[in-house]
Amino acid sequence: MRVALFTTCLADSFFAEACADSVRLLRHLGVEVDFPESQSCCGQPAYNAGHEEEARRMARHTMEVFADAEYVVLPSGSCTGMIRCFYPRLGDAERAQQLGSRTLELTEFLVRVLKIDSLGRGLEGRKIAYHHGCHALRELGIDAEPGQLLRGAGAEVVDWEADKECCGFGGLFASKLPEVSAAMADRKLDTLPDVDYVTSVDGGCLLQLSGRAGKRGSSTPFRHLASVLWEGTGENAVNGVHQ
Question: Are 68 and 101 within one domain?
Fold first, then answer.
Protein backbone atom coordinates (compact mmCIF):
# COMPACT_ATOMS: atom_id res chain seq x y z
CA MET A 1 0.00 0.00 0.00
CA ARG A 2 1.18 3.50 -0.79
CA VAL A 3 0.04 6.75 0.85
CA ALA A 4 0.81 10.43 0.45
CA LEU A 5 1.53 12.29 3.67
CA PHE A 6 -0.08 15.73 4.07
CA THR A 7 1.88 17.24 6.93
CA THR A 8 -0.29 20.37 7.51
CA CYS A 9 1.00 23.84 8.40
CA LEU A 10 0.93 23.49 12.18
CA ALA A 11 2.55 20.09 12.19
CA ASP A 12 5.26 21.24 9.79
CA SER A 13 6.01 24.36 11.84
CA PHE A 14 5.58 23.11 15.41
CA PHE A 15 5.54 19.29 15.33
CA ALA A 16 8.08 18.38 12.67
CA GLU A 17 9.23 15.35 14.62
CA ALA A 18 5.65 14.09 14.74
CA CYS A 19 5.54 14.31 10.94
CA ALA A 20 8.71 12.24 10.78
CA ASP A 21 7.28 9.82 13.33
CA SER A 22 4.17 9.44 11.15
CA VAL A 23 6.42 8.32 8.31
CA ARG A 24 8.40 5.99 10.59
CA LEU A 25 5.20 4.46 11.93
CA LEU A 26 3.66 3.90 8.51
CA ARG A 27 6.86 2.40 7.10
CA HIS A 28 7.12 0.17 10.16
CA LEU A 29 3.68 -1.16 9.23
CA GLY A 30 4.74 -1.88 5.66
CA VAL A 31 3.24 1.20 4.01
CA GLU A 32 5.15 3.15 1.38
CA VAL A 33 5.02 6.91 2.01
CA ASP A 34 5.27 9.71 -0.53
CA PHE A 35 5.71 13.37 0.37
CA PRO A 36 4.54 15.71 -2.42
CA GLU A 37 6.77 18.75 -1.93
CA SER A 38 4.31 21.11 -3.62
CA GLN A 39 1.72 20.65 -0.86
CA SER A 40 0.65 23.78 0.99
CA CYS A 41 -2.01 24.96 3.44
CA CYS A 42 -5.36 23.15 3.25
CA GLY A 43 -7.10 26.54 3.32
CA GLN A 44 -8.89 26.22 6.63
CA PRO A 45 -7.64 29.51 8.16
CA ALA A 46 -8.77 31.45 5.09
CA TYR A 47 -12.11 29.64 5.01
CA ASN A 48 -12.79 30.29 8.70
CA ALA A 49 -11.93 33.96 8.22
CA GLY A 50 -14.45 34.29 5.40
CA HIS A 51 -11.89 34.50 2.57
CA GLU A 52 -13.61 31.90 0.42
CA GLU A 53 -11.86 32.71 -2.85
CA GLU A 54 -8.45 32.24 -1.23
CA ALA A 55 -9.67 29.01 0.42
CA ARG A 56 -11.03 27.85 -2.94
CA ARG A 57 -7.66 28.45 -4.59
CA MET A 58 -5.88 26.44 -1.87
CA ALA A 59 -8.44 23.63 -2.17
CA ARG A 60 -7.92 23.43 -5.94
CA HIS A 61 -4.17 23.27 -5.42
CA THR A 62 -4.48 20.52 -2.81
CA MET A 63 -6.79 18.49 -5.05
CA GLU A 64 -4.22 18.72 -7.84
CA VAL A 65 -1.28 17.78 -5.61
CA PHE A 66 -2.97 14.67 -4.24
CA ALA A 67 -4.99 13.71 -7.31
CA ASP A 68 -3.15 10.42 -7.88
CA ALA A 69 -2.68 9.34 -4.26
CA GLU A 70 -4.17 6.01 -3.24
CA TYR A 71 -4.69 7.44 0.24
CA VAL A 72 -3.85 10.82 1.79
CA VAL A 73 -2.92 10.53 5.47
CA LEU A 74 -2.68 13.50 7.84
CA PRO A 75 -1.43 13.77 11.45
CA SER A 76 -4.34 16.16 12.06
CA GLY A 77 -8.07 15.76 12.54
CA SER A 78 -8.59 19.46 11.85
CA CYS A 79 -7.16 19.55 8.34
CA THR A 80 -8.65 16.15 7.50
CA GLY A 81 -12.04 17.57 8.47
CA MET A 82 -11.47 20.59 6.24
CA ILE A 83 -10.84 18.40 3.21
CA ARG A 84 -13.62 15.90 3.83
CA CYS A 85 -16.34 18.18 5.12
CA PHE A 86 -15.74 21.58 3.55
CA TYR A 87 -13.95 21.16 0.21
CA PRO A 88 -17.23 20.11 -1.47
CA ARG A 89 -18.61 23.56 -0.57
CA LEU A 90 -15.78 25.30 -2.42
CA GLY A 91 -16.63 24.12 -5.92
CA ASP A 92 -15.96 20.99 -8.01
CA ALA A 93 -17.87 18.95 -5.45
CA GLU A 94 -17.39 15.64 -7.23
CA ARG A 95 -13.61 15.97 -7.34
CA ALA A 96 -13.58 17.18 -3.73
CA GLN A 97 -15.66 14.22 -2.58
CA GLN A 98 -13.35 11.81 -4.40
CA LEU A 99 -10.35 13.25 -2.58
CA GLY A 100 -12.26 13.28 0.71
CA SER A 101 -13.06 9.57 0.41
CA ARG A 102 -9.31 8.85 0.21
CA THR A 103 -8.26 11.27 2.93
CA LEU A 104 -7.89 10.01 6.50
CA GLU A 105 -6.44 11.14 9.81
CA LEU A 106 -3.54 8.94 10.92
CA THR A 107 -5.30 6.85 13.60
CA GLU A 108 -8.36 6.51 11.39
CA PHE A 109 -6.15 5.09 8.65
CA LEU A 110 -4.35 2.70 11.01
CA VAL A 111 -7.53 1.26 12.51
CA ARG A 112 -10.07 1.46 9.70
CA VAL A 113 -7.87 0.73 6.69
CA LEU A 114 -4.88 -1.23 8.02
CA LYS A 115 -7.00 -2.92 10.75
CA ILE A 116 -4.28 -2.33 13.36
CA ASP A 117 -5.18 -2.84 17.00
CA SER A 118 -1.74 -3.44 18.51
CA LEU A 119 1.52 -1.69 17.68
CA GLY A 120 3.85 -3.19 20.29
CA ARG A 121 4.33 -2.75 24.02
CA GLY A 122 6.42 0.41 24.03
CA LEU A 123 3.98 2.26 26.30
CA GLU A 124 3.91 -0.24 29.14
CA GLY A 125 3.53 1.54 32.47
CA ARG A 126 2.58 4.88 30.89
CA LYS A 127 -0.45 6.78 32.19
CA ILE A 128 -1.75 8.91 29.35
CA ALA A 129 -4.64 11.37 29.02
CA TYR A 130 -6.12 11.74 25.56
CA HIS A 131 -7.75 14.97 24.36
CA HIS A 132 -10.43 14.55 21.69
CA GLY A 133 -10.08 17.45 19.27
CA CYS A 134 -13.42 18.79 18.06
CA HIS A 135 -12.74 18.26 14.36
CA ALA A 136 -11.63 14.65 14.73
CA LEU A 137 -14.44 13.77 17.13
CA ARG A 138 -17.37 15.75 15.77
CA GLU A 139 -16.63 16.09 12.06
CA LEU A 140 -14.89 12.77 11.40
CA GLY A 141 -16.40 10.56 14.11
CA ILE A 142 -12.98 9.49 15.41
CA ASP A 143 -13.62 8.41 18.99
CA ALA A 144 -12.38 4.96 19.96
CA GLU A 145 -9.45 4.68 17.55
CA PRO A 146 -6.78 6.69 19.44
CA GLY A 147 -7.50 4.98 22.75
CA GLN A 148 -7.56 1.58 21.08
CA LEU A 149 -4.08 2.14 19.65
CA LEU A 150 -2.70 3.53 22.91
CA ARG A 151 -4.02 0.63 24.95
CA GLY A 152 -2.80 -1.78 22.29
CA ALA A 153 0.70 -0.42 22.92
CA GLY A 154 0.45 -1.05 26.66
CA ALA A 155 -0.64 2.39 27.90
CA GLU A 156 -3.20 3.10 30.58
CA VAL A 157 -5.55 5.70 29.11
CA VAL A 158 -6.88 7.40 32.21
CA ASP A 159 -10.42 8.66 32.62
CA TRP A 160 -10.61 12.43 32.14
CA GLU A 161 -13.84 14.25 32.89
CA ALA A 162 -13.27 16.88 30.21
CA ASP A 163 -11.53 14.80 27.53
CA LYS A 164 -14.24 15.53 24.95
CA GLU A 165 -14.69 19.20 25.79
CA CYS A 166 -13.32 21.87 23.43
CA CYS A 167 -9.88 23.14 24.42
CA GLY A 168 -10.82 26.68 23.38
CA PHE A 169 -8.37 27.02 20.49
CA GLY A 170 -10.65 27.11 17.45
CA GLY A 171 -8.04 28.88 15.33
CA LEU A 172 -9.22 32.47 15.00
CA PHE A 173 -11.51 32.04 18.01
CA ALA A 174 -8.51 32.04 20.36
CA SER A 175 -7.35 35.34 18.86
CA LYS A 176 -10.73 37.05 18.78
CA LEU A 177 -11.94 35.92 22.20
CA PRO A 178 -8.79 35.17 24.20
CA GLU A 179 -10.45 35.41 27.62
CA VAL A 180 -13.11 32.85 26.70
CA SER A 181 -10.50 30.67 25.01
CA ALA A 182 -8.26 30.69 28.10
CA ALA A 183 -11.21 29.90 30.37
CA MET A 184 -12.10 26.87 28.26
CA ALA A 185 -8.52 25.61 28.43
CA ASP A 186 -8.45 26.20 32.19
CA ARG A 187 -11.61 24.18 32.63
CA LYS A 188 -9.97 21.21 30.92
CA LEU A 189 -6.72 21.58 32.83
CA ASP A 190 -8.57 21.89 36.16
CA THR A 191 -9.96 18.39 35.60
CA LEU A 192 -6.77 16.81 34.23
CA PRO A 193 -5.73 13.75 36.27
CA ASP A 194 -2.15 12.91 37.19
CA VAL A 195 -0.57 11.47 34.04
CA ASP A 196 2.82 11.00 32.40
CA TYR A 197 1.64 13.13 29.48
CA VAL A 198 -1.31 14.39 27.48
CA THR A 199 -1.67 13.56 23.81
CA SER A 200 -3.96 14.46 20.91
CA VAL A 201 -4.11 14.16 17.12
CA ASP A 202 -4.34 17.94 16.67
CA GLY A 203 -1.40 20.29 16.98
CA GLY A 204 -3.58 23.34 17.55
CA CYS A 205 -5.15 21.76 20.61
CA LEU A 206 -1.74 20.74 21.94
CA LEU A 207 -0.40 24.28 21.51
CA GLN A 208 -3.44 25.71 23.25
CA LEU A 209 -3.35 23.35 26.22
CA SER A 210 0.42 23.23 26.65
CA GLY A 211 0.68 27.01 26.43
CA ARG A 212 -1.99 27.52 29.03
CA ALA A 213 -0.56 24.78 31.25
CA GLY A 214 2.83 26.50 31.12
CA LYS A 215 1.24 29.77 32.20
CA ARG A 216 -0.19 27.95 35.20
CA GLY A 217 3.19 26.46 36.14
CA SER A 218 2.39 22.89 35.14
CA SER A 219 5.18 20.60 34.02
CA THR A 220 2.94 17.96 32.41
CA PRO A 221 4.27 17.18 28.90
CA PHE A 222 1.97 17.51 25.88
CA ARG A 223 2.91 15.26 22.96
CA HIS A 224 1.52 14.67 19.47
CA LEU A 225 -0.15 11.29 19.14
CA ALA A 226 1.98 10.32 16.13
CA SER A 227 5.12 10.45 18.27
CA VAL A 228 3.44 8.61 21.13
CA LEU A 229 2.31 5.82 18.80
CA TRP A 230 5.77 5.54 17.29
CA GLU A 231 7.09 5.13 20.83
CA GLY A 232 4.42 2.48 21.29
CA THR A 233 6.00 0.25 18.67
CA GLY A 234 9.10 -0.02 20.82
CA GLU A 235 11.23 0.52 17.73
CA ASN A 236 12.51 3.94 18.82
CA ALA A 237 13.99 2.44 21.96
CA VAL A 238 15.59 -0.39 20.01
CA ASN A 239 16.80 1.33 16.87
CA GLY A 240 16.81 5.03 17.77
CA VAL A 241 14.31 7.68 16.75
CA HIS A 242 16.32 8.83 13.74
CA GLN A 243 16.17 5.59 11.77
Answer: yes
